[in-house]
Amino acid sequence: MADMTRIGLFPGVSLTAVHTKKFKSSVLGVQFLSPLSAETASANALVPSVLRRGTARHLDMEALSAALDELYGGSIEPVVRTRGETQCVGFLGSFLDDAYTLDGSPVLEQAAALLGELLLEPYTEHGVFCPDYTAGERANLIDRIRAQINEKRSYAVKRLKEEMCAGEPFGVDRLGDEAHAAALTPELLWARYQDLLRRAPIEVYYCGSAAPERAAGALRAALAKLPQGGARTFPGRPAPHAAPDVPREVVEAMDVTQGKLTMGLRTGIQAWDDAYPALLLLNAVFGGTTTSKLFLNVREKLSLCYYASSGLMHYKDVMVVSSGVDFDKVEAARAEILAQLSACKAGQFEDWELEGARRSVVSALRSSADAQSRLEEFWLGQAVAGLSESPEDLAARVEAVTRAQVVEAAQKLALDTVYFLKGKEA
């Protein structure tokens, strides 16, 4: 059983320490939290990649690799994620847990020190980021932004979010956009980095066998050079938005052989609401599992889609339905997807559907404790949302959800935007 402890390291800098002896590796992470914004998203996304190229003591990636090899082959990688309308950028590292070192020597303090060095002591030239490192990583970022169009299923979801949440921070992609990325210079990126250092709230994460107090001590020492005294304003929770009276319709044509029908719904429920467990269960009944209505009816029984599923945008009041369809079946697929939603709203689902969905949600929550990456992902989201509920506690609430509560949650769903990616000849 993993125990979570929240510890303040400095003003605006908080540690989530998960104490467990289940894993042979320990995980360390540090993230800047920044409100999602088109003006800063690309710069924020670029900062950890440039920092990872070298430090004042380890001048390049070869030297950093050697330092990690000395820590039993540990790893520290840049990460860029979003949670709701907050962009989370920084590093995630994995190291051999102290309980498994050959001679009992501690790894935690050395790993934390290297993490702090990467974050706070970058390699610079003329007082700013190295031009070569900046140019190389800027090109990589632009390539990643451009490559998003290659995976059409996720691209359709990206475009749906942009259209549905135009004017909302949630509509901004985690990597930003090509124009803002291309404009970044070492000087501009350095200024953005300094702003993050001074003003961004920082979430620190540790999972391993060390006592939380020891982890806090190691990380306080590692982050001691952080600028102090500034106000680290925590991003607020996203405000709910009502769906329009008439759903938005967006159709785009590309050279594709399979249509992508993607539908965005407003849920009226967010992760901190009492009804959230019912929403989790509703999503599983509707389209979140292989026993859901969308899978069994739209895909299997009627063969209207190559795939059809629903998913919640956690920490934001949005559900997305994704489906792959033949061009001539799009209207039939759309009608049947909405018919299955109407069935959920009317409580027209069998007990076995409800209980199968419940087992799936509860199992997924409880099994998150068995994977380091899923555990870190969960607690990052909870920290950003200002929540302290564990996966086990959330699973217990899901177990207590009634049929009536699922129907009530379903009745709050409202179609907001429909995005269809069709072929050029369709």
TrEMBL record:
Gene Ontology MF term list: metal ion binding
TM stretches of this protein: none
Pfam families, A to Z: Peptidase_M16_C (PF05193)
Matches recorded under InterPro entries: Metalloenz_LuxS/M16 (IPR011249), Peptidase_M16_C (IPR007863)
Domain Peptidase M16 C-terminal as annotated: residue spans: 184-360
Superkingdom of the organism of origin: Bacteria
Name under which the protein is recorded: Insulinase family protein
Species this protein is from: Candidatus Flavonifractor intestinipullorum
